[in-house]
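Researcher: Structure for this, please.
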Amino acid sequence: MSLGPAGASLNPDEAENFEDMEKQFAVKAVQHMTTYWAILEKMKGSQLSLTKMDDEIYEHFQRDFPEFDPTETIDEDKMKSKEGKERWRNFMMAYEKKIDDYNFGTMLRSNPKFEYGEKETIFAMRMQFYAIEIARNRQGLNDWVYEQAHT
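Model: Predicted structure, token format:
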């Protein structure tokens, strides 16, 4: 879909059906979320690779966000503040040509101790999801999902 050249005004009478686009986005985001959960139920997160670049992403994430504690609840306000957005944008741009859909919206659990739920899920970009979930998996914080599914 094209909205026209950058800076051009959007004429709602000529725009494609945004409601359909939103539904398609929601379907893709939910599919990603349910697929990831199903994988965690079948394999311990600590044994899982999310991308071919997990090591690089993890090291980069630790370098750029040394204060991030994957065991804690994500401070969504801090993450989405002006400073937070800038830090994440800089981090994500390193993967623009390396990771498909690096900036596609997805769902992220705010805390690794909980399942996806209305109050426990935040909207994030794909690279934020990868960075945070790789860190959680490396620390074994998602292994409980597998263990719960096999008890």
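Researcher: Any notable elements?
Model: Residues 1-8 have pLDDT under 50 and may be disordered. DSSP finds six helices and two strands in the chain.
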